[in-house]
Fold this sequence. Notes:
The structure holds two protein chains of two kinds. Chain A is 37% helix and 22% strand. By secondary structure, chain A is of the alpha/beta class. Chain A has a single domain (6-133), classed as Glutaredoxin. In chain A, helix 2 (40-52) crosses helix 5. The longest helix of chain A is centred in the first third of the chain and has 13 residues, at 14-26. The radius of gyration of chain A is 13 Å and the shape is globular. The termini of chain A are far apart. By secondary structure, chain B is α+β, with helices and mostly antiparallel strands. Chain B folds into four domains: 3-22 and 517-627, no CATH class; 38-87 and 200-225 and 453-514, Immunoglobulin-like (Sandwich); 98-197, no CATH class; 267-440, no CATH class. Chain B has 16 helices and 17 strands. In chain B, helix 7 (155-166) runs antiparallel to helix 8 and helix 11 runs antiparallel to helix 12. At the A-B interface, helix 2 and helix 5 of A face helix 6 and helix 7 of B.
Amino acid sequence: MNLDRTIIIPADDRSLAQRLFKSAVYDEDVLVVVVLGEGPQKEQIVKWADKRAQVVVQDFGRKVIWIRDASVLEDEIRKLPLESEDAKEKMDAAVDLNAIALFSISLANTVMDVIKNDEKINILRIDMAFVYAGEAEVD
Amino acid sequence: MNKATVRIGIIGAFAFIFFFSGAGMDAAAKKEGEKNTGPIGPGVLSFEEIGGNESKVRTIKAAENKIAILDINSRLRIKIDKDAVKKYAADQLDIRISAKMPEEIEVISNILNMEADILGFIGEGKGLDEQTRKKNLQTFSKKMRELQRFILADPALSKKVNEKMENSDQPEDDYRFIFSVIREEIDRISGEYNQVFAGLNFRLGGWINRGAAPEPIHIEGFDTIQKGEFYEFPFFVPPTPEEWEKLKKLPEAAKNINEKGISAVFNIKEQLNQYVAGLEAEIKNSLDCTLKSLTGIKSQIISRATSDFKEQFKATDTVIQKVKDLLDLLQQMKTIIKELDILPGKLEQNLQLVQSLSTAIKNDIATLPDDIKNAKQEIENGLKGALATLGKDVQAGIKNGLEQIKDDCLKNIMATIADARSQIDSIVAFFKDEVIKNAAIMSPQWGAALELSDKVERFSIDKIPDEGNVDLRYLGKRDEGNELYFKAVLETKPKEGEEKVQTVTVDQKYFILFKMVYIKLKPALIFAAPLLKKTGRAEHGITLSDKKTFQAVASYSVLFKFGSRKSVAYNRFLRIGIGLNVAALDFNQDSNYEVGLGLVLSGFNDFVQLGVGRNMDIDANYFFFGINLPIGEISLPKIGAGGSSE
Lengths: 139, 646
């Protein structure tokens, strides 16, 4: 699997995982889709997300972060501000982060779109998560 | 006129104003308006009022749930929401169309029209600063997400786009593909609409109601009705012929008031009471006379004939009973008249009762001559056999009695009744015209039953013009308070087995015309009082005593009037005006008029005026108030008890 725009977070090194996550989210002006969990379905999601991450709009790129074990970065994920009502509802309801398939992060580092595992996921829906991240209010 | 009289006068004036202004009627009228003027369809028609130049455009929301106010000289642009027509047709006419609603399609179509701009954001920022690039990203994202949602809601479209995206080597090009897929879908839906709506015709008609029968008006682009005559409602409004007449009568009225007191002008109720009392006396007098004659004849016969006759005067007894009923009806009328000015809210109801009673009295009296004739016949028939046995003196007495009924008792009664009836009707009509007509504001159901003429064009749904125009200045002579009505209808194919086209109203709107700003000349009876104490008055040669504070004076005002675009009630009842007042004063009471010039504030549609002025001849300031009274508009002949109506 050739993933040009994806950062795979290691499950066995919490410190490295945090550094990689923070660097991707906070240090770069990119729209991010974070995929949680593993398995064939998640691999497909990552593959589609990576493909849609090729798109650049107004010089703003896209990235994919794949966290195969969400518990490694649970604190960092929970700290992210939730911008949309839909995101708040879904994140608050997800006691276990493994219920969430993916979410998108805006340039302002806020969570915009959240897709749960029980939702229908296709490449268009994943692109929509990126697009939604671009809608966040600018400074 | 003393202070007490003036005080009563002022209270009366405010009661009068309250009476005419219809306080509390606004809410009721508004409620009435709300009940009847709401759009039927989903806001098919929207309206813009265009003022003197094209830049003055005022939008009138079609959803406004009440009658709208238009400047009487404006132009009206009527916009037609074609998607709303389709939606109405789909909702109301059982036409099944795509699940995508017109408003959603409109949003999407607007985005499609921005394709080049939106796709232009993909890629580099072309040297733009960060803030601008972020704004552009936001715009791209918002528009693109709308399109994506549209696609995701349709499984077939979603499948198509997903397949393209999954197999794409150029992910950025997929957005162009999204545009093309949606464009195809919108075209398909439009075709579906046009097919579904084939055979449906849209028509738009308008009418003006000047008080008589509503007349169709020309809507540019929608009919072949001839334009009316050009007429521009004047900026300067001179007094009407009626007001000139009133102006002529003002000096006489002022003189009467100065001599008889202000209560003379608040005598509507009094006049009605006098009328009824006069009528009552006249009827009573005539009927007493009739009864006396009949009773005399009856007793004469009974005393001289056998006792069997006692039972043969049923018709006579009927007359007696009818008289009692009549007097009772008159008593009821008097009671209602007493209440006429107690509750303005019950005015209409009470006036209707006066009218009903007046009709009942008229009907009773109309049959009275026949009843009397029957009684006379009864007596004659009853006497047929016995009359010959009576003495000649009795025969002569009977004859005289019957002649007396005909000649003396009934001579004036019918003329009095007819005259009284017409006078009561005219008083009631006056109140109705001035008060109830105004208070009702509108009964805007008048348009519902109107049918569009053949001169109104038929348009298929896809050919409906975007807008129609009405230049109100080409509607001929118009007055404030005239109404306009517009109705949009859909004509559907006849049902199977029927030939008649079905017509449904999809939207309607009522307007009322007012002039927003104008200058008006208004005659008025004012009550002026010098702003000087007794000693000061003497110095200026004013002979009006301190007690006789106010002098009734004929005057006219030049008023600058402002209308409201929001409140029909304000325009009808309040309509503030400011201006100058010129009065013919006579403070020194030498019968030579002195010229008074004053500043005046008018309200309640000029029913009341207040101001201060200066008597230019004797250099004295004065305060004044004025009331627009129906002077000379009602004159009631006097009816003396037992006298004639002449």
